[in-house]
């Protein structure tokens, strides 16, 4: 089922949570709403579910407007952030709930419900837990019960609110891969809210980056990671070095590595704009000697070896700015760097944004 | 008692010696607590049953088997049977609205519900006398239509409802607020109707607190003295509840019977306290759900 | 945007339950209580004032509020000790004591009244030991104090206990590692934490005692100007069909109750605001 959100605005009191949000999700897609807390992503999800009403704008599900439709008529599955499992019911009773509350005429027979519950519990790999209570399950298991419960009513749309937010790192990773595989099997349209960029990039077909009630960028995970549309997206998706400058013309300004090969300049070339250059730590090339006049001279302050990567903290000679660099172990060994030594850095890849002077 | 305090003290000695008191201070504090509770709780509790059984078991039982005592018991049960269900149903309704929704005037409603707790029981009776009494606002109209409220059953029921009206709602509101809306919202997203949601999700989650609220409400309803005293008129065998019957017997120097009836009310209080302990255990223990099966 | 009376929600039953609650609580509580104020308005100010400052009334206020205050102070001290002992120490009978603390709340006041009278009378279990010392409790103002202390007992214990339970013992350990002795830790770390709850509990005990009737009238002796509490004076006026007199005194009591309820709310707000910042 496709989803269309048109110019949706939502305020709580004087605070605007969603400001003229428009987006489209194709049938069968798994889309992640990504953003820091307070960006409006959960509110948007709740509006799609029918748990909240937008102040302005319209919602279409499968081409039909549902803005004023009650939640029960929308046939959406909703997985709550804290699972909202019924604590007094067993796992099986939780999963069966949506079926047992159907009007008698539509309700499947008791044996059919049992069968269905068994199928769903097999799907989420919890067959053995059918008679347990939520309090006896681990966080990851509860999450899967919540998912099975939402799927039981065969929704056309599955909405997940921070589904892995309360889990520890290892379980999160397992579950989101599992969710991805499950989605590939079921082909149900899904929207997932998360503040974890890794989760969004890994699980979703497309990512919607949100910030302060606005949509900053919509695109495939590669798209938003490789070609961020705004400084916010750049900074939100991974670590980044930020270099400030004043105008494009004055490239000689000490704090900009004056490089000819600029990858992308986003806004138009206008004088007297504040210019910001973004470079990811792993996009910085480090050399022991100057090979190129545009290289930046810096001193190694700290070397942090974490797992397969090595992180360097450098101080630029001219501006004193701290620069973060990420190297592979091999490159690090090759360079044989010590703290206090002088190196020359230049970006392989960077992006420049211009912000009008305020 | 002392030996086990010392034993517990040894256990604490090295582990917590920095964050607890010397064993002397500890013993003095426990002794002070016990002395105070003995004077104000234990002695009175023992005294009630001791006085009631002064003339032996037969004297005790005789106190109940007379017209007036039985009438008082019947009236008390009747009043509670009307007041408690009404307060329970409307208490649940109020708790639902207050705990699950945000609306203008919510604090005012909470204040209104709590008000009877702040008001003297004598005033609780007085307001109904002023409303329905012979000189009251509706007194003339009621007299014309031959409806008796004050010095009759309806007045007693009304005064009792007033005094016990906060208990169920107060027990439920904090619990329902802490449980949040998510489980109910989940039920709705899964297609449950309002009634299905309430019966299958809300009610099971609040049943123990609701039960305790009802038990407490019942204990206070059966034991209410001041408010009922004002509106009852003390008509023997007719408008005398058990607490009023206790007063009459006591004032007639029939201490044994007074304490016998009082002991019944005391048992009710003890049952209420036990229910509180049991329900607290039930709701606090983490594997309560396991024992359900 | 229209003025929002209620935040939208998908949960059903708001109109029904709020409607029922408003109807019921207005009928049972609001309308009867406002009847009291309406009745007062039929009195002239002079009439009202004469009743309210009558020497017998003044004496009853002094006894009611005085004994309630002393009772609250006694409960403040012993209630804090009991709460401390219940939370911090393990001793035989602890859970029984914990359960029995609520007895004054659950026991009908008339039962408490006759029982306390029987015990503290000159031939009673405790009274007979006080008599030779020249202390008469039953049928004196001291008896009023005993009854009001009894009914106020649970309040301080039950407000202090949860705060004490939630008190982070690491903070005490921190104080100790910084060189504070036990008494210093108690004074500078624990007492400031307990203080709002203790005051709230005392205010609640005081408020309850001010309105108390059943447990007092048996033990008080009810001598006008000497051992007569205000609720009893109202009762006496009612029995003499002096509705105006009863109403005027009722208003005094009611206003006092509201002021106390407001004070308690402020105290609770204060104590919860303190905890939010920590």
Structure notes:
The complex is a heterotrimer of chains A (358), B (293) and C (278). Chain A is of the alpha/beta class and 358 residues long. Chain A has 10 helices and 19 strands. In chain A, the strands form 4 sheets. A 6-stranded mixed β-sheet of chain A has the order 6-7-8-3-9-10, sandwiched between helices. Chain A has a 5-stranded antiparallel β-sheet with strand order 14-18-15-16-17. Helices cover 78% and strands 0% of the residues of chain B. In chain B, α10 (182-189) runs antiparallel to α11 (194-223). Chain B has helices spanning 2-16, 23-52, 56-62, 67-100, 106-118, 121-132, 139-144, 153-164, 166-179, 182-189, 194-223, 226-232, 242-251, 255-284. Chain B is mainly α and 293 residues long. The two termini of chain C are 38 Å apart. Chain C has 13 helices and no strands. In chain C, 46% of the residues are buried. The A-B interface holds A 49, 51, 71-72, 76-78, 80, 82, 84-89, 97-98, 101-102, 131, 133, 135-136, 149-150, 152-153 and B 182-183, 185-193, 196, 200-201, 204-205, 286-287, 289-290, 292-293.
Could you name the key traits of this structure?
heterotrimer; A: alpha/beta; six-stranded mixed sheet; five-stranded antiparallel sheet; 10 helices; elongated; B: 293 residues; mainly alpha; 78% helix; globular; disordered C terminus
Task: Give the arrangement of secondary structure elements.
The complex is a heterotrimer of chains A (358), B (293) and C (278).
Chain A: E1 3-12, E2 15-25, E3 30-34, H1 41-49, E4 56-61, E5 64-65, H2 71-74, E6 76-79, H3 91-100, H4 110-123, H5 139-152, E7 157-161, H6 169-186, E8 189-194, H7 197-203, E9 206-211, E10 214-219, H8 221-226, H9 231-236, E11 241-245, E12 264-265, E13 273-279, E14 284-287, E15 296-306, E16 309-316, E17 322-328, H10 329-335, E18 342-347, E19 351-356
Parallel strand pairs in A: 3-8, 3-9, 6-7, 7-8, 12-19
Antiparallel strand pairs in A: 1-2, 1-4, 4-5, 9-10, 11-13, 13-19, 14-18, 15-16, 15-18, 16-17
Helix pairs in contact in A: 3-4, 3-5, 4-5
Chain B: H1 2-16, H2 23-52, H3 56-62, H4 67-100, H5 106-118, H6 121-132, H7 139-144, H8 153-164, H9 166-179, H10 182-189, H11 194-223, H12 226-232, H13 242-251, H14 255-284
Helix pairs in contact in B: 2-14, 4-8, 4-9, 4-11, 6-8, 6-12, 8-11, 8-12, 9-11, 10-11, 11-14, 13-14
Chain C: H1 14-40, H2 45-52, H3 55-88, H4 94-100, H5 103-106, H6 109-120, H7 127-130, H8 141-166, H9 169-177, H10 182-211, H11 214-220, H12 230-239, H13 243-276
């Amino acid at each position: 089922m496709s989803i269309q959100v048109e110019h949706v605005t939502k305020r709580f009191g004087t605070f605007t949570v969603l400001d003229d949000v428009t987006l489209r999700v194709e049938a069968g897609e798994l889309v992640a709403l990504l953003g820091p807390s307070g960006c409006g992503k959960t509110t948007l999800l709740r509006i799609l579910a029918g748990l909240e009403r937008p102040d302005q704008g319209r919602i279409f599900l499968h081409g039909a407007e549902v803005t004023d439709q009650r939640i029960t008529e929308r046939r959406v599955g909703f997985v709550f952030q804290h699972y909202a499992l019924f604590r007094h019911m067993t796992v099986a009773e939780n999963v069966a709930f949506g079926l047992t509350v159907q009007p008698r005429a539509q309700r499947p027979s008791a044996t059919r419900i049992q069968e269905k519950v068994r199928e769903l519990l097999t799907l989420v790999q919890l067959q053995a837990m059918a008679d347990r209570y939520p309090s006896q399950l681990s966080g990851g298991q509860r999450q899967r019960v919540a998912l099975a419960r939402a799927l039981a009513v065969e929704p056309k749309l599955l909405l997940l609110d921070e589904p892995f937010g309360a889990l520890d790192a290892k379980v999160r990773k397992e579950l989101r891969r599992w969710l991805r595989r499950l989605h590939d099997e079921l082909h149900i349209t899904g929207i997932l809210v998360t503040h974890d960029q890794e989760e969004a990039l890994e699980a979703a077909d497309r990512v919607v980056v949100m910030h302060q009630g606005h949509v900053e960028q919509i695109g495939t995970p590669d798209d938003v990671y490789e070609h961020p549309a705004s400084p916010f997206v750049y900074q939100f998706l991974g670590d980044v070095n930020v270099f400030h400058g004043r105008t494009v013309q004055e490239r000689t300004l000490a704090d900009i590595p004056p490089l000819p090969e600029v990858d992308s300049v986003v806004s138009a070339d206008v004088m007297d704009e504040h210019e910001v250059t973004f470079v990811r730590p792993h996009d910085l090339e480090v050399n022991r000697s100057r090979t190129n006049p545009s290289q930046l001279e810096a001193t190694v302050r700290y070397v942090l070896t974490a797992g397969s990567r090595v992180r360097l903290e450098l101080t630029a000679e001219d501006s004193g700015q701290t620069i973060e660099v990420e190297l592979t172990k091999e490159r690090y060994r090759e360079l044989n760097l010590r703290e206090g030594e002088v190196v020359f850095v230049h970006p392989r890849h960077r992006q420049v944004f211009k912000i009008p002077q305020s | 008692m002392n030996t086990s305090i010392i034993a517990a003290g040894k256990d604490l000695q090295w582990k917590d010696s920095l964050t607890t008191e010397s064993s002397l201070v500890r013993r003095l504090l426990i002794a002070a607590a016990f002395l105070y509770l003995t004077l104000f709780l234990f002695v009175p509790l023992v005294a009630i049953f001791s006085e009631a059984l002064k003339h032996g078991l037969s004297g005790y039982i005789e106190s109940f088997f007379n017209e007036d005592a039985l009438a008082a018991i019947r009236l008390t049960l009747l009043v509670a049977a009307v007041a408690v269900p009404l307060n329970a149903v409307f208490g649940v309704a109020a708790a639902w609205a207050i705990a699950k929704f945000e609306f203008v005037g919510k604090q005012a409603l909470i204040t209104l519900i709590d008000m009877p707790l702040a008001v003297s029981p004598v005033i609780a009776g007085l307001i109904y006398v002023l409303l329905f009494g012979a000189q009251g606002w509706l007194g003339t109209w009621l007299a014309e239509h031959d409806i008796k409220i004050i010095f009759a059953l309806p007045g007693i029921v009304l005064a009792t409802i007033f005094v016990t009206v906060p208990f169920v709602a107060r027990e439920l509101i904090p619990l329902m607020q802490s449980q949040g809306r998510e489980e109910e919202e989940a039920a709705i997203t899964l297609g449950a109707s309002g009634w299905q949601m309430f019966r299958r999700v809300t009610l099971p989650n609040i049943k123990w607190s609701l039960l305790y609220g009802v038990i407490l409400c019942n204990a206070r309803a059966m034991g209410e003295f001041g408010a009922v005293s004002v509106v009852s008129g003390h008509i023997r065998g007719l408008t005398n509840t058990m607490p009023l019957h206790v007063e009459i017997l006591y004032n007639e120097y029939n201490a044994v019977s007074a304490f016998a009836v009082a002991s019944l009310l005391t048992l009710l209080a003890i049952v209420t306290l036990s229910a509180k302990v049991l329900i607290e255990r039930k709701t606090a223990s983490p594997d309560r759900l396991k024992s359900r099966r | 945007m229209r003025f929002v009376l209620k935040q939208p929600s998908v949960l059903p039953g708001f109109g029904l339950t709020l409607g029922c609650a408003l109807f019921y609580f207005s009928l049972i509580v609001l309308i009867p209580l406002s009847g009291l104020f309406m009745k007062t308005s039929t009195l002239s100010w002079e009439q009202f004032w004469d009743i309210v400052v009558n020497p017998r009334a003044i004496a009853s206020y002094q006894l009611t509020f005085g004994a309630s205050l002393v009772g609250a102070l006694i409960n403040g001290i012993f209630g804090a000790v009991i709460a401390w002992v219940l939370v911090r120490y393990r001793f035989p009978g602890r859970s029984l004591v914990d359960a029995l603390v609520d007895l004054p709340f659950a026991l009908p006041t008339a039962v408490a009244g006759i029982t306390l009278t029987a015990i503290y009378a000159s031939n009673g279990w405790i009274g007979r030991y006080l008599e030779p010392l020249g202390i008469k409790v039953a049928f004196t103002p001291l008896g009023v104090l005993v009854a009001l202390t009894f009914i106020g007992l649970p309040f301080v214990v039950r407000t202090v206990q949860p705060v004490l339970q939630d008190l982070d013992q690491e903070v005490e350990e921190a104080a100790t590692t910084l060189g504070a002795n036990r008494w210093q830790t108690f004074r500078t770390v624990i007492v400031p934490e307990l203080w709002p709850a203790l005051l709230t509990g005392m205010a609640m005990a005081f408020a309850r005692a001010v309105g108390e009737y059943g447990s007092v009238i048996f033990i008080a002796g009810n001598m006008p100007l000497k051992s007569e509490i205000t609720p009893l004076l109202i009762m006496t006026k009612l029995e003499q069909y002096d509705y105006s007199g009863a109403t005027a005194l009722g208003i005094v009591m009611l206003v006092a109750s509201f002021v106390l309820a407001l004070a308690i709310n402020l105290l609770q707000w204060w104590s919860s605001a303190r905890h939010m910042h920590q």
